[in-house]
DNA sequence: GAGCAGCCTGCATACGTTTTCAGGAAACCG
DNA sequence: CGGTTTCCTGAAAACGTATGCAGGCTGCTC
């Protein structure tokens, strides 16, 4: 249970003894304070170097009141989308001398609570929350920490001070427009489980695009998965069972599109000849599927760097924009084509 | 530059004042020490709860000499293989009350050094290194930290005390055997850049399998990429240029196999009808390619949990095995078939 | 009622830093 | 040469927590 007695690291006092000065002087010398004689400072630093001295973060943070760390909460690091999240954040943070605590919540409320608590104990200077639910559920606990918080792609950004999110409405409209421009008239929307804000927004964009093009909105063409890739085939089956099935499907995200893709292949239907598919996210693998997936790219790396920068700005006392919406980008690949075309 | 003055969190002394006791008693009450009267302990805990008290990790670690944190170094979190690494570790660590510091080195020596230094300052209790080069390059700095270190899939495991790695030789032999069993006689090895230990080991397994089956070893059938997926097509082109090209290729990893797959498709060659391909890793996307990729699965999740458990054992003072080799598993999909077959 | 054990509590110190304050020595000015 | 400034240094307090030690109170025993 208890850890073995660690060999105590060499402290500031130890090298004070070696250098025949007070530990105050050592502290100043190491922080390059102008208050100390250049020659003795140099001597002290040399001794510190030789004795392998490394300052204690915990001790320092006790007096400086900050730890130079930020916490990052993510639903699941194994999720390819979130892996990039963490990468961008860590990079930006490191450039500013901050270290990152990482935790994934696994969408488990108990664990989410535990994670927030743990970050609080470690006295992180700031927090980035990329787990959609955490923001909503633990708002009270979070704001009680009284540290800057940035939410990315969170469900209810408006309730928090700072956030960065993808421009869902615009992106969905752009995606649907693309299908319309190809000549599709019967375009389905395969959404996420009901009630997610991102889903609602994307659906709004879909309807806007239809309205712009004077296409009728048909409720039959709107189906929903269950939040997992596994639910997509059933939803797709409902669409195919219609008297007049759609010629194109706007999928909630790439994983959904992939599941649909496999399902269609099993049924002997071709993409994009028989059905066009467009996804959302531009996951790493979207480029490698067959056919490669046309999709709306979420610039995750930039979004995360933006979130990190926003947080770092806040930590350095600068004002920051409250809410940032990043535009998605249409990535044209081979899963969309004009309806009834013999080759994409 | 300087952070704004944080509102000081409520401390142990503050609730001592509220509860009309000394801060020592508060400390004991919160740690559930038997030395304190159950009723006052309860009262203290209630007051602490109400005032939103949260103990300070830095302050505590100053006296307990450990921080309940571990550091994880990884080359790139965006790399899908490593994303899983971190997931398994974080989960296991969290179950034992440890938080994880995450850093990716980006294979940049300066940054690697910086990261190690930073972890040292934060006084992490232990370290997991999943960045192949870090182990070799910064051995001195690492061992000077005098904390337990576990290496995963590192280049020179033997020089460190603890490590977990994939059984490369066995895995490669198994992969090659599979191709031989399908009837292939001309089997190529598309390796990584020269000099990597993992590549050397996999190559050894490849040769062993050939020898077992009394197949001749042909140096022409051994090519190398440049460490990136981009280098694979060129290597593949060399193989196709041979008088007698191979009927099957053992690819160093899945990304390489994918690059080859695309290259072959461009050339109008079919997989597996014209060429069989086998990969290594079983990345998330291997299941979604067309055709789905036959590959050797590295049980990353388990490996990382194993590494984390090993580290946690060490931290708790238990003895631990020094080196663990995990077996890979052959995942049969559709990218391999008997040579010249018309369908997989 | 004296002695004693057991339970609980507070005092003091320590952990490794940073920082304020005061002061000594040197240098400078008149 | 006295006074003042400048430069450097050390003493001391503080950050929030854990814990050894001493001691006070209660209740028990004889």
Structure characterization notes:
The structure is a homodimer of 344-residue chains. By secondary structure, chain A is α/β, with parallel strands linked by helices. The first copy, chain A, contains 13 helices and 12 strands. The first copy, chain A, has helices at residues 12-19, 23-30, 38-50, 57-64, 80-95, 109-121, 132-137, 139-144, 168-181, 197-212, 232-240, 254-266, 300-315, and strands at 69-74, 99-104, 126-129, 149-152, 162-166, 187-191, 222-224, 248-251, 276-281, 294-297, 323-326, 329-331. Chain A has a 6-stranded parallel sheet, with helices on both faces. In chain A, strands 7-6-8-9-10-12 form a 6-stranded mixed sheet, sandwiched between helices. In chain A, helix 5 links the parallel strand 1 and strand 2 (99-104). In chain A, helix 1 (12-19) packs across helix 2 (23-30) and helix 2 (23-30) crosses helix 3. Chain A is elongated, with a radius of gyration of 26 Å. The termini of chain A are far apart. In chain A, 49% of the residues are buried. At the A-B interface, helix 4, helix 5, strand 2 and helix 6 of A face helix 4, helix 5, strand 2, helix 6 and helix 12 of B. The structure holds a DNA duplex (30 and 30 nucleotides).
């Amino acid at each position: 249970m208890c850890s073995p007695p660690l060999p105590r690291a060499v402290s500031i006092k130890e090298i004070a003894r070696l250098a025949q000065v007070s530990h105050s002087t050592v502290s100043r010398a190491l922080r390059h304070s102008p208050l100390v004689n250049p020659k003795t400072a140099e001597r002290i630093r040399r001794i510190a170097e030789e004795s392998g001295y490394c300052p204690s973060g915990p001790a320092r943070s006790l007096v400086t009141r900050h730890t130079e760390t930020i916490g990052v909460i993510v639903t699941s690091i194994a999720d390819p989308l979130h892996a990039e999240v963490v990468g961008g954040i860590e990079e930006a943070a490191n450039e500013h001398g901050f270290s990152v605590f990482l935790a994934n919540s696994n969408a488990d409320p108990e664990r989410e609570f535990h994670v927030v608590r743990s970050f609080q104990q470690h006295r992180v200077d700031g927090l980035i929350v990329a787990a959609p639910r955490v923001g909503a559920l633990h708002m009270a606990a979070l704001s009680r920490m009284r540290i800057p918080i940035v939410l990315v792609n969170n469900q209810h950004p408006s309730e928090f001070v700072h956030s960065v999110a993808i421009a869902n409405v615009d992106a969905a409209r752009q995606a649907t427009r693309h299908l319309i421009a190809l000549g599709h008239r019967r375009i389905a929307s395969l959404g996420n489980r009901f009630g997610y804000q991102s889903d609602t927004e994307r659906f709004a964009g879909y309807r806007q695009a239809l309205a712009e093009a004077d296409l009728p909105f048909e409720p039959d063409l709107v189906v929903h998965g269950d939040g997992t890739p596994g639910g997509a085939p059933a939803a797709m089956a409902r669409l195919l069972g219609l008297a007049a099935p759609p010629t194109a499907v706007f999928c909630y995200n790439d994983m959904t599109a992939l599941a649909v893709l496999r399902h269609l292949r099993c049924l002997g239907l071709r993409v994009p000849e028989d059905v066009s598919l467009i996804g959302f996210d531009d996951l790493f693998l979207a480029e490698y599927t067959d056919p490669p997936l046309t999709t709306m790219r979420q610039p995750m790396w930039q979004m995360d760097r933006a979130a990190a920068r926003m947080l770092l700005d806040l930590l350095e006392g600068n004002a920051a924009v409250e809410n940032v919406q990043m535009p998605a980008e249409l990535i044209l690949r081979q899963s969309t084509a004009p309806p009834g075309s013999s080759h994409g």
